[in-house]
Automatic annotation (TrEMBL):
InterPro entries: Ureohydrolase (IPR006035), Ureohydrolase_dom_sf (IPR023696), Ureohydrolase_Mn_BS (IPR020855). Residues 1-18 form the signal peptide. GO terms for biological process: putrescine biosynthetic process from arginine, via agmatine. The keyword Lipoprotein does not apply. Belongs to the arginase family. Agmatinase subfamily. GO terms for molecular function: agmatinase activity; metal ion binding. SUPFAM superfamilies: Arginase/deacetylase. Keywords: Hydrolase, Metal-binding, Signal. This is Arginase/deacetylase. Gene3D superfamilies: Ureohydrolase domain. It comes from the Eukaryota. Pfam families: Arginase. The keyword Nucleotidyltransferase does not apply.
Amino acid sequence: MFKQLLTALLLLITAAQAHRDDGNEQVLLVNDKFTSEQWSKKYGDQIDHAFSGPLSFERVTYERCLDDTELKTPFDIAILGMPFDTGVSYRPGARFGPFAIRSGSRRMSEAWGYTLSWGVNPYSLGPKVVDCGDVPVSPYDNTLAVDQMEVAYSTLLSRPVMNETSFGSNITKGLALDGKAHPRIVSLGGDHTIVLPILRSLHKVYGRVSVIHFDAHLDTWAGLTDPASRSRINHGTFFYIASKEGLMSSRCIHAGIRCKMGGPADLENDDSVGFQVISADDIDDLGIPEIIKRIRARVGDTPVYLSLDIDVLDPGIAPATGTPEAGGWTAREVKRIIRGLAGLNFVGADVVEVSPSYDNAEITGILAADIVHDFLAMMLTDAPPRRVKGRSDPFPAAESDLCEIGPQVLLNTWSRISRENEETRLFLCIFIFSWSVPVQTSTAAQAHHHYDENEYILSINNNDDYKTEHWAKKYGKQIDQTFSGPLSFSHVTYERCLDDIAAKTPFDIAILGMPFDTGVTYRPGARFGPFAIRSGARRQRETRGYTMSWGTDPYSLGSKVVDCGDVPVSPFDNALAVDQMEIAYSTLLARPVANATALGSNGTQVLALDGKAHPRIISLGGDHTIVLPILRALHKVYGPISVIHFDAHLDTWAAYPGQATEQSRVTHGTFFFLAAEEGLMSSRCIHAGIRCKMNGPADLQNDDTVGFQVISTDDIDDLGIPEIIKRIRARVGDTPVYLSLDIDVLGDTPVYLSLDIDVLDPGIAPATGTPEAGGWTSREVKRVLRGLAGLNFVGADVVEVAPGYDHAEITGIAAADIVHDFLAMMLTDAPPGGAKTRLPVRGGVDSQFSPVKDEL
């Protein structure tokens, strides 16, 4: 016994000496000088990159406005999601539209809102823009859902504005029947049915509203059902119903129509509803300037609502929609028309019918978000944008465009005048405009002169009782449904934990995103992994965490779980990024726990070198390189760590070809080798699911030197799941003797579990950077995880989720489900169904290991 102990001590001394001698060569890899630093002290605020952070439109302030009965947060423009899609006649899925549009806006922000085409940043113009979240509409009762949307919209319309003198707020004050300024709302659909409750709400404030309707379809059909039937209300009939209820003026106009119809009678009905039609082909025959003129002339100076169905665009440009029609407009054309409408009396707007499941590259959501940005500029400027200085034409876009479509003789005169002679060109432009517009608008202007908002009596089906009701009074709290709300893992509390210097919010387990992917050797994209995993967790929540396989709800076991957001890692400097991740992880490890007596917290207290309880962190990668800074941080608290590594690849290679510098050694395939060099891991680590191609047997010999044993992917067939569980438990230690000096006894070690999503077969989890055929199924992996409950877990991660390679979100959903298993695994003291008391294991695996047998 003494001889064995002496041998072990000599080996440790030798390894330590070797590590010390190499210190100077590893200055970029070892971070001892950062040991005691906190994130906020070294790196400042926990900022959000384009690929990280919580989800609100363009990262504006997120508020649960429907809960704010005390009106603590005034605003001028609200972004409001309406995830309703049970009024569709073809493909559903627009309930995910608000989420997709917000997701598409992640590269945008208030600070970066200036565009060449607008020549202004809408956020710099004074009004306050907030994201009010989503209306928690019922997906089961359309009548209820329509009422919920109306009540929610009316609740926000009744709020005070932030800046009464800003452009827009002063417009609403002049238009409103009560003479007061009202906020304006940009709604994110949802299917087009949402416009009916919106128009009902707007009518109470402004009277009849003129609608500018961008769409491939008329949406003015009367419907084939009984007029009294609730089924009449759908995304193709809402304008007809709104007309019958007296909600719209007779000054409405369509743009982009190209749908198939029953016949000319549909157009006659459309005219009776109050619409004129600009077809999709008119953009070729008339040109954009003429289309802008006709729209402006049609609506005049009435209260204007703009509704844009994303299918006005060609499906090749915006495929994610429910009723696509070929031959649509381009994004550039639509955006130019929108710019030409600035200065009209807009009281609201929407983008609808975005159904992200029909788009595998997020292009529709990105486009819709860009259009919403245009809406903000359109609603906050008093005229179409002037050409930006330095461009060829210095005049207002609308004026220049209108001039160019005047009579041919004037066009010829225009073309002969030098563009440098600005005064002459501007005079001629105004002359042409004054010559041409009255001919087209005199009748409309005369009609508007006699337009009396007060002569119409509101007639809303069964909605008279809701005129003065507040959302909170009628429907209670603004809850989040599975397909709505801000984005945190399983809807748990979101905290910017790295900013919480005073540690005001203690927790037991933190979800922490590490959106780092510049250590990969093949396909990048895992920086979007944290986002994808949180997105995949939207159907999960604390109140519905019970599963048959676990027999418990991890959120009910007394530990506080929070989502700490993402580490704002640098995508440009890997050395900096690795240090940022280590500092962030160490910062959270130093936080106090919420419940020191909870299972897991008491275990960390025994294992920690300082004898204190420490939080545990589940990291969302990011590529696998993130494990190196994690192990560095854990080593400071617990000493050497035993790693359970689920992966298709070893990740213990010493280097890759072309790694000429010390920092270039840090990759997602070398981090375990580097961790072993630094003495961060114990010699009791184990792989599970290995099936990669290698250079030869030497790779396995090196792997053994690093401290790993191997369970291959084929072992699941030859050994079975029970034996795999037993071997993993035996390897890392499965005894209550935490600090045994008897090396014949497998003492418990601190355990870290790292799961590369490519351990799963790529047919089950395609969204990863280095896929390998022949992997395990999600059912098999989840069963193995259940068999590991009760080990001394000090942390875990899921890495290498790269959602760009998955068009149906199945990888993100699988990863989110695995994280839920991690929570249960870390918060229970034995595999489900197993005995509560585990027996010491001596010299191998005890054949009477009850928990594994019961789990099987």
